[in-house]
Amino acid sequence: MSPPVSSRAALVLVDVQPDFMPGGTLACHEGDAIVPGISRLLERQVFRHVVATQDWHPAGHVSFASSHPGREAFERIPLYGHAQTLWPDHCVQETPGAALHPSIDWSRVDKVIRKGDDPRVDSYSGFRENHGPDGTRPSTELHDWLRAKGVDEIYLCGLARDVCVLWTAQDAVDLGYRTHVVWDLTRPVTPDTDIATRVRFDQLGVDTLESGTLG
């Protein structure tokens, strides 16, 4: 039997929103397949601390291809000295696609961190926005909230495995958290990125595990 999860650990649920699931405007591969497992994990109350991130873009966000006439979704352009992928309009504030998934009981979540609400700056990581016009990556509330709770270890689930989960893991390691990714409760934008994503997690020292091992 697996050892119990530390009381200093937090579960971080990344962008579990309808727009990232089949039928959504930026659907991940089999994105909805993670919903039942996340619900079971929350019901089992394995974690003392649970946080969710929520992509929360204003209309006309800089990351939307529709904000750049003549450009198409998934093109890459230079923005503030870094490569920016242009996405379909997604997770627009107050729309159904931006809501936290309705099949999950979110009352078990202690804190929701909204990100990507600056119209000028994209945001993948739960910890920090992407590079902005001044060259910095502004912090979200997540790090301060976790530290206030005494958390030093995080377990990541959610979407997308190869974008927002990956960036959140990278920042978590940089900030000193022992970091785990619950592989079966994540999904990628496209599955052909999985090998590269696993290699990157290994390079970072991020542990990958299956939800069935959590107890």
Give an overview in words.
With 215 residues, the protein is α/β, with parallel strands linked by helices. The protein has a single domain, classed as Rossmann fold (3-Layer(aba) Sandwich), CATH 3.40.50.850. 18% of the residues lie in helices and 21% in strands. It contains 4 helices and 8 strands, in the order βαββββαβαβαβ. The chain has helices at residues 35-43, 142-148, 164-174, 194-204; strands at 9-14, 49-55, 76-79, 82-85, 111-115, 153-159, 178-187, 207-209. Strands 5-2-1-6-7-8 form a 6-stranded parallel β-sheet. Strands 3-4 form a two-stranded antiparallel ribbon. β6, α3 (164-174) and β7 form a beta-alpha-beta unit. The relative contact order is 0.20.
List keywords for this structure.
alpha/beta; 4 helices; 8 strands; 18% helix; globular; 6-stranded parallel β-sheet; 215 residues; Rossmann fold
Short structural description:
This protein is of the alpha/beta class and 215 residues long. It is built from 4 helices and 8 strands. 18% of the residues lie in helices and 21% in strands.
Strand-helix topology:
Layout: E1 9-14, H1 35-43, E2 49-55, E3 76-79, E4 82-85, E5 111-115, H2 142-148, E6 153-159, H3 164-174, E7 178-187, H4 194-204, E8 207-209
Parallel strand pairs: 1-2, 1-6, 2-5, 6-7, 7-8
Antiparallel strand pairs: 3-4
CATH class: Alpha Beta
> In angstroms, what separates the terminal alpha carbons?
8 Å
User: What is the CATH H-level superfamily?
Assistant: Isochorismatase-like
Poorly predicted ranges (pLDDT <50, ≥5 residues)?
none
Strand content: 15-25%
Rg is: 16 Å
How many structural domains in the coordinates? 1
Can you write the helix and strand succession as a string?
Answer: EHEEEEHEHEHE
| Tally of individual helices | 4
Average of per-residue pLDDT values: 96
